[in-house]
Design brief:
7 helices; 2 domains; Immunoglobulin-like; three-stranded antiparallel beta sheet
Length: 339
């Protein structure tokens, strides 16, 4: 083979290898950028959940409790996957910037997964690491250059975040269903206990009645008068409750619902006002999702005359139902008049 042919052959091989290496480096850069987008957006969702869980009395403990729940574990799994997959630097990949991006994403995800300090110091730490991550992302975006390719990377990352959000919604639905099931079981047990105590009292009373005991005439008269007095008292109390119930005037106002994330779950709020002259007890509010089969309820112990109660009603909606939701109908299902 002539030397010139050999030289041309070697040049062609080198060109092919360089082309392959360039493509591999670009893919590594895009993968690292996509992971960084996922960390940024998933962490944003987690921080939004933290803000909802935070209250001034419990402080960051309430945030830590949420972080150990099913929803947070779903988000943490996505963060782990995004920080575990590291782009392998190649000849044409910006090795130093990829390492800086991976480190910034890992530090940010770790802090979000494990909140520490006070609420203010935690927020300050989050802001600092978020700025560092944004700077590293911007450097890689400039390195990538091609806006079309960057948009494809953003779209791919958003699909991963949307899948995670759907999993979070499912976890929330499961958790609420478990809470409702536990509440129903507890109410069932309490009713069974009351029924057993009532049956035992009735058995003891029947036994006392069945056992003849000589009673002096004076004591018999006193007992009869006491029974008549108690019967009259019970009848009067029953009449008062019935009359009071007629005078209870409950009005539902300011019905609102706000999604935690797209596709649910939702938090329904409504103001219950008592415009009547008598206090209302044991009020049951029902929330019905117009256009879907979604339904939930909440219990309010007492609403004074002229008083109001703004109670959030937990309600779940599937992703599919979100397209047919036309509004929320919150109404009073049950109530008693207070004595």
């Amino acid at each position: 083979m002539k030397p010139r042919v050999i030289v041309l052959f070697l040049v062609a091989v080198v060109a092919i290898l360089l082309f392959v290496a360039h493509g591999t480096g670009r893919k590594a850069t895009e993968a690292a950028l996509a992971n960084a987008y996922v960390v940024r957006d998933a962490s944003g969702l987690m921080l939004a959940k933290y803000s909802e869980a935070f209250d001034t009395q419990s402080g960051i403990r309430a945030v830590a409790e949420y972080a150990s729940g099913a929803e947070a574990k779903t988000i943490a799994k996505t963060l782990d996957e995004a920080t575990r997959v590291a782009a392998a630097p190649s000849l044409f990949a910006p090795k130093q910037r990829l390492e800086e991006l991976g480190l910034a994403a890992a530090q940010y995800a770790h802090l979000v997964r494990e909140p520490r300090g006070t609420w203010l110091t935690f927020q300050s730490e989050v802001a600092g690491l978020r700025t560092k991550l944004d700077g590293a992302i911007l450097a890689i975006e400039r390195e990538l250059g091609d806006d079309a390719r960057r948009k494809e990377v953003v779209t791919a990352a958003q699909k991963r975040v949307d899948a995670m959000a759907a999993a979070v919604a499912e976890a929330a639905a499961r958790a609420m269903n478990e809470e409702l099931k536990e509440l129903e079981e507890r109410q069932k047990r309490e009713k069974e206990d009351r029924d057993q105590r009532t049956a035992a009292d009735a058995a003891r009373f029947a036994k006392l009645i069945a056992t003849p005991t000589p009673v002096p005439p004076e004591e018999a008269a006193r007992l009869a008068a006491e029974r008549e007095k108690q019967a009259a008292s019970f009848a009067a109390a029953k009449g008062r409750r019935a009359a009071n119930r007629e005078n209870v005037k409950l009005v539902v106002r300011n019905v609102k619902f706000t999604p935690h994330i797209a596709g649910g779950p939702f938090r329904v709020k409504a103001t219950l006002a008592n415009v009547g002259p008598v206090a209302a007890c044991n009020v049951r509010l029902e929330a019905n999702a117009v256009g879907t089969n979604g339904k939930s309820w909440t219990h309010i112990t007492r609403v004074e005359p002229g008083g109001e109660s703004e109670t959030p009603v937990g309600w779940l909606i599937s992703v599919a139902d979100g397209f047919t939701l036309k509004g929320m109908d919150v109404r009073v299902a049950e109530y008693d008049g207070c004595e």
